[in-house]
Specification:
Endonuclease, Chain A, alpha+beta, 9 helices, 2 domains, eight-stranded mixed beta sheet
């Protein structure tokens, strides 16, 4: 089949798809109108006019209903990841699905370019519960550290955190955890140490409020500090997940102990 034949066939299909149902409905309604006494007395012209008019009205109502449905039920706004063979500059750094309440960041540099410092993310927050591996940069900055009401840290004398420190560039983890503990306590934060390493940091921000969110970063042994991926879950789209993570945080908190300084 030549390209001209394919083009003609495609046009016929497209025209039928658009105008075919309208034409069939107009014929049916014209026939119905012709059997209505007052309209039938005016002849076929009036019946056709009424049938076509009714068809247009029905199509208008259906179109308005479809538009209203899509307005109140929008499609998820997702950024589609680039192909695997795309260059690093072509690949998206943030994968976002706002309607589902999820935002994924490929590394810490992308997170900071998107939201600024951790302190700036806490602007306006009334209660932050944090589970951090170290948190040194945040606490040294002094920016909004009073927003954190509860802080979970690894026990600096535990085997797990010592193994983590040995596999990363952060060799002074034991000293830094104790320093962060002192700073946090000085600003009124309740601090506990957890014996077991959980390989994640987690922030729970105003999770009791409709605008609450949590942020989770994967902190694995052998990982590079600035290349750790992370994601944010927003309560308006992921309430069930936030409630579950809040429960997990509370379980860890209840099984943690007071710092030994």
């Amino acid at each position: 089949m030549s390209w001209r034949e394919r083009l003609n066939l495609t046009n016929v299909v497209n025209f039928w798809t658009i105008f075919g149902p309208d034409g069939v409905l107009a014929v049916i309604l014209s026939w119905v109108a012709d059997h209505i006494g007052p309209i039938a007395e005016l002849g076929w012209g009036a019946a056709i006019f009424v049938g076509v008019g009714a068809t247009c009205l029905i199509m208008l109502v259906i179109g308005a209903l479809l538009v209203a449905w899509r307005y109140f039920h929008p499609l998820p706004q997702e950024r589609v990841p680039a192909a695997p063979d795309a260059s690093p500059n072509e690949r998206p750094s943030v994968v976002e699905s706002k309607n589902n309440g999820v935002k994924f960041f490929t590394n810490r540099n992308v997170l900071q370019r998107t939201h600024g410092t951790l302190g700036s993310r806490f602007a306006g927050a009334t209660k932050v519960s944090a589970m951090l591996v170290v948190g040194h940069k945040f606490y040294i900055s002094g920016d909004k550290i009073e927003a954190v009401k509860e802080l979970l840290l690894p026990d600096p004398d535990g085997k797990a955190i010592k193994h983590f420190a040995a596999t990363t560039e952060r060799k002074d983890t034991t000293r830094v955890i104790k320093e962060v503990t002192r700073i946090a306590r000085k600003h009124g934060t309740a601090v506990r140490w957890y014996d077991h390493f959980v390989c994640h940091s987690m922030l729970l921000v105003d999770v009791e409020r409709p605008t609450g969110w949590i942020h989770i970063e994967m902190v694995l042994p052998y990982s590079t500090h600035d290349k750790r991926p992370s994601y944010t879950l927003y309560k308006n789209g992921q309430e069930e997940a936030i409630l579950e993570m809040s429960r997990v945080f509370r379980e860890i908190w209840d099984n943690a102990h007071e710092p030994r300084l």
